[in-house]
TrEMBL record:
Keywords: Membrane, Transmembrane, Transmembrane helix. It comes from Streptomyces calvus. The keyword Acetylation does not apply. This is Uncharacterized protein. It comes from the Bacteria.
Length: 520
């Protein structure tokens, strides 16, 4: 489990199961998932873990490791620890102290391992019995080993600056800090370079970096959303809309005096969601991809992979909107250029740890944002299905004071026209939800104020137009608007809890650079 579920749910789980039992249950759950290759990759990806920098590699007890950061456990925890630690970002597992009676337990734990296992044997006979089954041995006289009992990330990262140092955390460190401790230490120990700016962008588009294309994509999506809003508040229907329907807004109003308002409510909500997507993409570009965050590129990739294919909803609705198609044709090459390769050079600015209670509150806020995003995705999926099938929900028909048969009698193209707007909104909502979920899951770090402001601006762009337009047209059914109000409450609460953490002041001293690290 990630820190954003571990800490907020830790006390309820301890109250329900007991503290020791809840800890063992969590470890066994991670071990059961991590024991399977697909499960281990899923956990690593879900946690946002990446390959550690090369300078953190080394050897422990004669075994090469990708990161000189491991967990030291007694034999009783060895089986679960060996299977759970690799996806969490640990470089190895030490089992100690191991006596002759523990040899079968350690052999079983090391079987099928995907992470180096070293042993602190109590005697030579035990070491001889385990030599064919483990990767190395540690001894009390190895002064390179630093046994960590303090969960301070800053202290652990500072210790790793010594090229020969090997850090061994006790289980109590993970209990106190959470399963994300290894990844946080690795990131804090990663040397970085300064982030590029707009002045570093040349005039040749062929040489533009991915983050610049992602920023242009976000700005383009924002402009498209604002244009859609302007059309909705102005003529409502463009010339091709009128040609398709064979009707004007005046004709629609004459048929049903709520119908034009209903179209506006769908389209304004869609426009707000497009602006929210644009804000999210621009934030991921400037705050994430530009600073060498691989997860930011993946968040953009997954969001766009859901959003752009919704253009083909017309195969079901039967209505092709030229402006929607033109926007997709212009923006899609930008999307491809933005995600064509993952950023590899770290360019973020590390921020020292702050008060632990501040981080715990922020983790609760993080959980609320992720739960909200999951709800938005589910809502978008439902809206898409409804738009592609029945088109209307009961509260829609109650607001219109009509039924589907009556609307079809007005024009056989009216319902497919409405279906296009509704299904498109559902697809956009799913795309935005994926970006929100991944930004919240992977971008939660102290001092990353851009994460706070990106999510706050996206929430304002998405929620406020929906609330205002429903009030303006008097479509105020409590059941219909309940998800909106719940989303606003959860997002606001989550951001308020996380604001001191995300918006913490950056350090005044310059960060250790990659050039300096190489020169050590």
């Amino acid at each position: 489990m990630p820190d954003w579920t571990y800490h907020p749910l830790r006390r309820p789980a301890a109250a329900l199961l007991g503290e020791r039992r809840s800890q063992r249950t969590a470890l066994r759950l991670l071990a059961s998932v991590g024991a399977r290759p697909a499960g281990a990759r899923l956990v690593a990806r879900a946690f946002g873990h990446r390959h550690p920098p090369r300078h953190l590699a080394g050897e422990v007890g004669g075994a090469p490791v990708t990161v000189r950061l491991g967990l030291s456990v007694p034999p009783a925890l060895a089986h679960e620890a060996v299977r759970a630690m690799a996806p969490l970002g640990a470089g190895f597992v030490e089992v100690t102290p191991v006596a002759a009676a523990d040899v079968p337990t350690v052999r079983e734990a090391a079987a099928g391992r995907s992470i180096p296992v070293v042993v602190g044997a109590c005697d030579a006979e035990t070491a001889t019995g385990l030599e064919p089954y483990v990767d190395g041995f540690t001894g009390a006289d190895d002064h390179r080993l630093i046994r960590v009992t303090d969960p301070s990330v800053t202290a652990a990262a500072a210790a790793l600056e010594e090229p020969a140092a090997v850090l061994l955390a006790r289980p109590g460190v993970l209990v106190a800090a959470g399963p994300g401790w290894f990844a946080r230490v690795t990131e804090a120990a990663t040397p970085t370079l300064p982030a590029p700016g707009p002045r570093d962008i040349g005039r040749d588009p062929r040489r533009w970096p991915a983050w610049w294309w992602a920023l242009l994509l976000g700005l383009g999506m924002t402009v498209a959303g604002l244009c859609a809003a302007a059309i909705t508040l102005g003529p409502v229907l463009l010339c091709y809309d009128r040609a398709y329907l064979g009707m004007t807004p005046g004709d629609l109003h004459a048929v049903n005096h709520h119908l034009v308002h209903f179209l506006q409510h769908d389209r304004i909500t869609m426009a707000g969601t497009m602006v929210a997507i644009g804000v999210l993409y621009a934030g991921l570009a400037a705050g994430g991809i530009r600073r060498g965050r691989p997860w930011a590129r993946e968040a953009l990739l997954l969001s766009g992979a859901i959003g752009f294919p919704t253009l083909f909803y017309f195969l079901v609705t039967g209505f092709v909107e030229p402006l929607h198609t033109a926007a997709a044709v212009v923006l899609f090459p930008m999307f491809v250029a933005a995600v064509r390769r993952s950023p590899r050079t770290p360019r973020w600015r590390p921020v020292p740890e702050g008060p632990e209670p501040e981080r715990r509150r922020a983790l609760t806020g993080q959980l609320l944002l992720i739960v909200t995003a999951v709800g938005l995705f589910a809502g978008g999926a439902v809206i898409s299905v409804v738009g592609l099938t029945g088109v209307f929900v009961p509260t829609d028909l109650a607001f219109l004071d009509t039924d589907v048969q009556t609307l079809r009698a007005v024009s056989p193209r009216l319902v497919p026209f409405i279906a296009h707007d509704r299904a498109g909104f559902g697809g956009a909502l799913m795309s935005a939800a994926v970006a929100i979920a991944l930004l919240s899951a992977w971008g939660w770090r102290r001092g990353e104020a851009w994460v706070f402001w990106t999510l706050a601006a996206a929430a304002a762009a998405g929620f406020l137009p929906a609330v205002v337009v429903h009030g303006a047209i008097h479509y105020t059914d409590a059941v219909h608007l309940a998800p909106v109000w719940l989303g606003i409450a959860m997002t606001t609460t989550g951001l308020l809890l996380a604001r001191p953490y995300l918006c913490a002041a950056a350090p005044t001293q310059p960060a250790r650079t990659a050039d300096a690290a190489v020169g050590r």
